[in-house]
Write a structure and sequence with these properties.
Glucose Permease (Domain IIA); 2 helices; single chain; 127 residues; 4-stranded antiparallel beta sheet; 3-stranded antiparallel beta sheet; mainly beta
């Protein structure tokens, strides 16, 4: 009738991981992302080197090559932060990661830095 005690879906606010220009995921120059094989999302052409947590949660995945960081929220949502395109080939060189798998993080907390020059000098896309 009134649904006073019904659980309400409050949604989840997701911040940008880096300062830059937001692009539709379909505009990314990589079929894995542009066809949404890994799910929906967006890309950012970065203007800054500092990468931040877009949500609060737990670091669920941290690739040895430092190019991707996963965060699982308390609500169970999985967020993948992928740094650049095909940057796995750089074996972690342009990235400094400040967290480890299992760490609890707060929204807006610094997670990593990326060196654009190393990425673009090797011919990779930094978005």
């Amino acid at each position: 009738m009134f649904n006073f005690f019904k659980k309400k879906n409050k949604g989840l606010e997701v911040d940008a991981v880096v300062d830059g220009t937001v692009m539709p995921i379909t505009d990314v120059n990589d079929d894995v992302f542009s066809t949404k094989m890994l799910g929906d999302g967006f890309a950012i052409k970065p203007n800054d080197t500092q990468i931040y947590a877009p949500v609060a949660g737990t670091i669920s995945t941290l690739f040895p090559t430092k190019h991707a960081i996963g965060i699982k929220t308390d609500e169970g949502l999985e967020i993948l932060i992928h740094l650049g395109l095909d940057t796995v080939e750089l074996k972690g060189a342009p990235f400094t990661v400040d967290v480890k798998q299992g760490d609890k993080v707060e929204q807006g907390q610094p997670l990593a830095t990326m060196d654009f020059k190393q990425i673009t000098d090797k011919g990779y896309d930094d978005s």
